Amino acid sequence: MHEENKAAANGCGKIRSGAQNGAALLALMEKTGYSMVQQNGQRKFGGPPPGWEGPPPPRGCEVFVGKIPRDMYEDELVPVFERAGKIYELRLMMEFSGENRGYAFVMYTTKEEAQLAIKILNNYEIRPGKFIGVCVSLDNCRLFIGAIPKDKKKEEILNEMKKVTEGVVDVIVYPNATDKTKNRGFAFVEYESHRAAAMARRRLIPGTFQPWGHTIQVDWADPEKVVDEETMQRVKVLYVRNLMISTTEDKIKAEFNKFKPGVVERVKKLRDYAFVHFFHREDAVAAMSIMNGKCIDGASIEVTLAKPVNKESSWKQHFNGQISPSSENLLGFPNKEDGTQKSLGKPASLSVRLNGQHSPSPPEVERSTYPIFPGIKLTPISMYSLKLSHFSSAVMHLDYFCHKNSWAPPEYCLYSTTSQDGKVLLVYKVLISSIADDSQSYFMPEKLCTTVEDAKELAAQFTLLHLGKHKHF
C-alpha cells in the first residue's frame, strides 16, 4: 500500500475537528507555498502556483476527479495528485457543511502530466475500499443549436449567431444524408471560451430569441472524446462522413485504393458515413491528406482519423460527485437525422448495430410531458415503427434489437440467492433462441440485484454489450 493510502487508513473513521482541518491545510500551504481561496462553492489551491509566469496551461491539462471521500481535503489529495506532475491548480467543490461534494478538478502544467494522472490514478484506491475516478476535463466551448430551418446555409447561421452572441469562432453544419442541399436541422456553434459559450447559451434561451421566426433548441454540445497522442499515433482507420446514401462500400474502397492499390483492408459503411481500415498507418495518413474534400458520387467528403475509445479513461461526469465507467468500446460515431443530435464525434455507448446503424443502449430520451388537449387525434402504432431515440430502457432496446434482426423476443429466466445478511438477491439469464447455433445464445451478468426491475435492466444491458462486442452484423 502506498504511503498516501497508509496515511489515509490511519485517519479513516476519525472525523477531524474544524481546528484540526484548518491546521492541516495551513501546514500544506506553508510547505508548498501555494495559496488557497474559497469562493462560489469551491476551494482553489494554487492557480497559479508560486513563481508561475505566463498564461495558464492550455486546454487538455485539467482532469476531473470523482468519488472523493466527503471528509478528504487538500492535505491528502495534493500529495496523491503530485505523483503525476506539478499541480497548477486544484479546485475542490465544497458544501456549506464544510464537507467536500465528492469531486474536484486538478489542472497540471502540461497535457502529458494530465494524461499520466489519468493513467496512474484512475481507479486509484485513495482509502481502503474507496476508489477515485479520473478523466480528462475540458471547458466546453461549443453549443448545440437544434430546430434550425433545413434550408439555411452555414454562412446564414454563422451571421445570425454573430448578431446576437459574442465570441463566435465557427459554426459546424452537416448536410442532410439524402439531400445535400439542405442541413440536418441542427448546428454546432464554437465560441472562443467557455464563458462566451455560457453567456451565449443564456442569451439564446428558447422564447427570448427566434431566428428566422423559429423557436430553436439550445444546449451544451457533448464534448468530443479526447484520445491521447500515443493512442492516436497507432490509428490506421479513417472516418469518412458526408457520403451519399447510394455510395457502396466497394466504391469507397476503390476510391481510397486509387492513390496506392491494395492499401485498404476493408470498408464498413453506415448510412452516410464509413470506416476505412488500412493495413498500415502511413497509408491511412496519406489517404486522409489526399481524400479529404474529394468528391465521391457528387458528395464532398470529410476524412479524419477515427478515434478509438480508451475504456480505462472514459467516464461520465455527474456534478453530484459521482462518476461511472462508460462501456464505449467501438470506433462509433452518431448519425441522427433529426434535430436532437447533441454529439459531435461521440461514440455510441454500448454500441451495437441495428440494420446498418450504430445505436446507443439505452439512448438518452427527452422525458418532457405534453398535455392531451380535447379532440386531439391519437393513432395506434407499433413500437417497432419508432426510432431508437424513443427508448430509454435497455429491456425495450433489446426487444427492439431482436426484432430488427428477425430474432425471437428475448426470454428472461429469473434466479435468486440469499446474501450473508439474509437479503434476497436476484439475477436474470437472457436467452435468445434464434442464435442458438452460435457460440453463445444466453447471457447472464456477474452481478446480483435486490430488485426485479434492476436485475432485468442489468441483464438487458449486459446482453446488448456482449452482442456489440462479439457479433458482426
Keywords:
473 residues, alpha+beta, Alpha-Beta Plaits, seven-stranded antiparallel beta sheet, four-stranded antiparallel beta sheet, 11 helices, 26% strand, globular, disordered C terminus, differentiation, cytoplasm
Structural class: alpha+beta
Identify low-pLDDT runs. Answer: 1-14, 311-367, 469-473
Q: Which percent range describes the beta-strand content? A: 25-35%
Distance between the termini: 46 Å
- Provide the CATH architecture of the largest domain: 2-Layer Sandwich
Shape: globular
Mean pLDDT: 79
Name of the CATH homologous superfamily of the largest domain: RRM (RNA recognition motif) domain
Question: Would you state the CATH class of the largest domain?
Answer: Alpha Beta
- Tell me the major beta sheet: 7 strands, antiparallel
What count of helical segments does DSSP give? Answer: 11
Main location: cytoplasm
InterPro entries: HnRNP_R/Q_splicing_fac (IPR006535), Nucleotide-bd_a/b_plait_sf (IPR012677), RBD_domain_sf (IPR035979), RBM46_DSR (IPR044462), RBM46_RRM1 (IPR034434), RBM46_RRM2 (IPR034435), RBM46_RRM3 (IPR047837), RRM_dom (IPR000504)
Organism: Serinus canaria (Island canary)
Protein name: Probable RNA-binding protein 46
How would you briefly describe this protein structure?
The protein has eleven helices and 24 strands. It is an alpha+beta fold. A hairpin with a 7-residue loop joins strand 9 and strand 10 (183-191).
Task: Summarize the structure in words.
By secondary structure, this protein is an alpha+beta fold. The chain folds into four domains: 3-136, Alpha-Beta Plaits (2-Layer Sandwich), CATH 3.30.70; 142-220, RRM (RNA recognition motif) domain (Alpha-Beta Plaits); 236-305, RRM (RNA recognition motif) domain (Alpha-Beta Plaits, 2-Layer Sandwich); 349-470, Double Stranded RNA Binding Domain, CATH 3.30.160.20. The chain contains eleven helices and 24 strands. The strands form seven sheets. It has a seven-stranded antiparallel sheet. Strand 18 (315-317) and strand 19 form a beta hairpin. Helix 10 crosses helix 11 (452-470). The two termini are 46 Å apart. 32% of the residues are buried.
